[in-house]
Write a structure and sequence with these properties.
By secondary structure, the protein is mainly α. It has helices spanning 2-23, 25-30, 34-58, 64-83, 126-131, 137-148, 182-198, 200-210, and strands at 91-92, 98-101, 108-111, 116-117. The chain folds into two domains: 2-83; 91-210, no CATH class. It contains eight helices and four strands, in the order ααααββββαααα. It binds zinc ion.
Amino acid sequence: MKSKLNTDQYWFVAFLVLPLISAMQFGDAYTTDKGMKVLYSGLAGLVAGALGVAGYYFTSKRSVTVRVVVLVVLVIGLALPTILMPQSGQVMSKDGIVYSTCPVCGYIAFNAQEKHCDNCGEELTEEEMHKNGLTSLDSMIRMGQLYQFIPEDEKAAVSFEQPAVSEDGYTLDKSWRPSVTKAEVEKEALQYYENRRTHHVKVEIIKKEQK
Ligand SMILES: [Zn+2]
């Protein structure tokens, strides 16, 4: 009797937790907005929890095979909205903007319609390209990356490591890789620090204006 109770408890936990885990990825994949993420994941979690408990009770008198099948169907079914999301790597913000991966910073924050990244602020338009005296989009991306990865602190080593979620709440596309090398960034950094020393006052003013 005691062992049956224990097995039942395991089943209950499995029916509650597995669909929950499966469903709660939804918010993460669907929106970049932190608050909405919690809301979507919470709602998905409620549905999953209810379905899980229902699944547990409906199959309580059934064989182990039936229970496993129902559980697997629940887990897969609840993961489907996340898997079937329109083109992975694209998410929608609270305002309905579709974001794709920014080629410069790697965060899913690039507004393809406006050709502007809401995370790093890079603007990838032909106009910007000509303004900077560049001839290709690729050189613009490389240029943006060179500056992006220069450490503010002169003594810090160049690193391509970035947090999974940016300060502004955008998600890093894990498959993204920078097109510049660390050596190229280091070279650019020397120049940057040199300029910063010579035009120290100017840099300070620009920084203040941005705030
Ligand atoms: Zn960016």
